[in-house]
Amino acid sequence: MHVYESNNIRVSGYPLPLKLKIVDDLTIDNPAYLRAKYQRRPTWGIDQKLQLFTYDNDGSLILPRGYADRLYNLITETTTSVKWDKEQVEGETVDFGPWNENFQIRDYQHPLIDNLLRKNGIGVSPAGSGKTIMGMRYIYEVGRPTLWLTHTRDLVYQTRDRALSTLKGVGRVGILGDGIEDFGDRKLIIATVQTLKAKQRLVEKLKEFIGVVVIDEAHHFPSTQFLDTAAQFPAKRIVGLTATPKRKDEMEQLMYLGIGPVLHEVPRTALYKDDQLVLPEVKFIYTSFTYGNEDSADGNIDAGGEDLDYQDILYRLFENEDRLNLVAQSIVDAVKYGQSIVLSESVRYCFRLKEKVDKLLLEQGYRGCKTAVVHGGLTRYIWKVASGKRQAEALAADYGTECKYDGKARRWKVKTPQYTEEEFKKWQVTKKKRQEILDQCREGKVNILFATQLAREGLDIPSLCVGHTVTPKRGDGKSNTGLNLEQEIGRIMRKDPQNPDKKAVWFDYVDASVGVLKGQYYSRRKVYKRLGIKLPSKPKSAEKDVIDGLLDSIKF
Predict the structure, then answer these.
(1) pLDDT tens by residue, 164-210
(2) Distance from the CA of 330 to the CA of which of 35, 62, 225, 527 falls in 20 to 30 A?
(3) 3-class state of residue 474 by DSSP
(4) What is the dihedral of CA 346, 350, 356, 358, to 10 degrees?
(5) pLDDT-based confidence at 307, cuts 50/70/90?
(6) Residue 530 zone, left/alpha/beta (φ > 0; ψ -120 to 50; rest)
(7) Where does the pLDDT of residue 288 fall: very low under 50, low under 70, confident under 90, or very high at 90 and above?
(8) What whole-number distance in Å separates Cα of residue 350 and Cα of residue 426?
(9) In the UniProt record, does the keyword Protein transport occur (predicted)?
């Protein structure tokens, strides 16, 4: 039997018993199928099983590189004679030093770095724990040409700035993304996975000399872009960094198989003990929003996603003026306690809130208070699934757009406008403008930042101390990990060197009169408790819309 290990593992000449064990290992239940079945949704078009291996034309098995340890154990158990060859790129020795001693590696960071140096795999550490610094120290110790993979242009520049501040000998950092194709001094190259997926020629050049691949926010790895791109590199070392390995779609197995197992997890308590995180106070504000008959949805936090009833709930919630006024006034009242971030799933809701808040600020004497909105960019149209051809054609006629049959998904889809032409032009934020806004936030020139999913990962503004989560959100549940909420609240938990006595407060807006949204509120409480945050008790009744004197009771 022959095993050839490079960017993946090729196994040929295998005995049948070994093959059967490998196939059994790498054939898993499809979480999407199980979830649809659990929610009593149609399962047609969804594979019941997933095969995490392929066959080459000559019958060889092609396996993910993270399966190497398991394969070795299977071969040992079956006493099969094997020739195991490796052909991976180690890369030439490069000098990243000297290390900037202003960035001392803390006691809780050493074990993670040490474990990554021993073998390939994943390091797990909470938001605000210094994952990027640990990653920089790792590549400093390895001393080989490194590709740092991320998924947003903002993270590219944040990572570059961190590299320049920690690695005094890094030289000119390469950037592949945001329209830039620069290999720099070929020591450290930071790339967006989207750019590499779109430009195979860059991948081919990098494969020749990159000896280390660091995958930032590694829980994204199971996505098609990360799988197709990162799996091409025959680098000897590949590691991942993430705040949590759990994924909403339960496909973290692909991450383990593509990168390696979790090697070390930094406990959140270590950061509290080391005084590296600010433990926020969570305040719940109860709205008066209601929605029709909620008997069937009570407590079901798994409702949502593509569910049309849930989408209608959100639409009506975003249009509700009483709720908008309540949220806006709370945001204004919190201004005197420090710089705020307001997080919403909807770009439109961000701008509606900003307009309302700006008006209240003027009326209530906060004339020097500046607000801004950042988001990842607007798409004028998206393709939405229709119930059938007739509905697709009718909707396309209403929208003045088009419809088509998606043969792969076996569904009719209609081109649907997300924004009016006026909204699209008025609300679009260019990459240059977005960077200017974020820079102004870091300089303290923006008092209230309204943001969408951009703020979930990697947004590093230590001066933020007040947070508002203003749209419904799931927390911990049967099919959810509360990752989005955990990452968002992490934005206000970072220590601020300019404010050593920083206090933080997080406002959670609860729509307790709507069954599904009330269930989500309970699931969010589980996240807060898991993070070690002491919570006020659940109210016996949610009839009171506003907690009088709420902000005045906060001790700063």
Answers:
(1) 999 999 999 999 998 999 999 999 999 999 999 999 999 999 999 99
(2) 527
(3) coil
(4) 180
(5) very low
(6) alpha
(7) very high
(8) 13
(9) no
For residue 234, give both structure tokens.
């025959």
Round to whole Å and give the CA distance between 508 and 518: 12
Strand 174-177 to 180-182 pairing:
antiparallel
CA-CA distances (angstroms) from residue 287 to 326, 348, 517? 8, 20, 11
pLDDT at 403 over 70: yes
The CATH class that applies to domain 281-379+420-553 reads alpha beta
User: What dihedral do alpha carbons 72, 74, 78, 82 form, nearest 10°?
Assistant: -30
Task: Report d(CA 370, CA 447) in Å as an integer.
Answer: 5
Rounded Cα gap, residues 387 and 400, in angstroms: 19
What is the predicted pLDDT for the residue at 142? 97
d(CA 498, CA 465): 12
Q: Are both 2-86 and 110-273 of the same fold? A: no
Task: Select the more confidently predicted residue: 486 or 480.
Answer: 486
pLDDT at 303 over 50: no
Is residue 465 within 8 Å of 426, Cβ to Cβ? no
Nearest 5°: the CA angle 43, 474, 267 is 115
Kindly report whether the peptide bond that precedes residue 417 is cis, defined as omega within 30 degrees of 0. Answer: no
Domain segments of the chain as ranges: 2-86, 110-273, 281-379+420-553, 381-417
Query: Per-residue b/e over 427-455, b at no fewer than 16 CB within 10 Å?
Result: bebeeeebbebbeebeeeebbbbbbbbbb
Q: What is the mean pLDDT of residues 500-521?
A: 93
Class of domain 2-86: alpha beta
E strand or H helix at 315? helix 308-319
- Which of 75-79, 380-384, 390-394, 523-527 has the weakest average pLDDT? 75-79
Q: Which CATH class is domain 110-273?
A: alpha beta
Nearest 5°: the CA angle 291, 295, 299 is 90
Which residue has better confidence, 317 or 431?
317
Structure-block tokens of residue 543: 């009839």
Which of 41-55, 167-181, 314-328 bottoms out in mean pLDDT, i.e. has the lowest?
A: 41-55
Q: How far is CA 106 from CA 75, 113, 114, 497, in A?
A: 40, 11, 13, 16
Average pLDDT, the chain: 87
Distance between CA atoms of residues 193 and 199, nearest Å: 10
**Residue holding tokens 């305040």?**
283
Distance separating alpha carbons of residues 176 and 150, to the nearest angstrom: 10
